[in-house]
Amino acid sequence: MKITDKGQFEAQNVFGAGAPNDVYAQYFIGHSFLNPLTDPQCGVFLANVTFEPGCRNNWHIHHATKGGGQILVCTAGEGWYQEEGKPAVSLVPGTVITIPPEVKHWHGAKADSWFSHIAIEVPGDGCSNEWCEPVTDEQYAGL
């Protein structure tokens, strides 16, 4: 369900928006928020990531020599996920996206909705993230 009202969205966003995502702001168009759900040292890091309407992250790749990748569990609002060379996928609460390592992709909110997902970093060897170019306004508007 698309949600444009921030107060209504916050009532639906059961894991909470958290703090402004200032550490990674350079890799986002628009404002995002980060609420860590587990301690990074526990072995499996989960965080609720919230995007304001129109916010999206840059294209990026989760590298790993073994294992790795990312899982997105959509929890509130509506968003987009796209792998390079493939059509974008509409995201709604309950959608689960499994992103293998080495796949260039991006994700974020629809232009007219707040959006949250839980991002799960899949454990592996040699894991790193490569941030690439922004999703252009033209690419995004074409969805």
UniProtKB/TrEMBL annotation:
PANTHER family: BLL4564 PROTEIN, RIBD C-TERMINAL DOMAIN CONTAINING PROTEIN. This is Uncharacterized protein. It comes from Subdoligranulum variabile DSM 15176. The lineage of its organism: Bacteria, Bacillati, Bacillota, Clostridia, Eubacteriales.
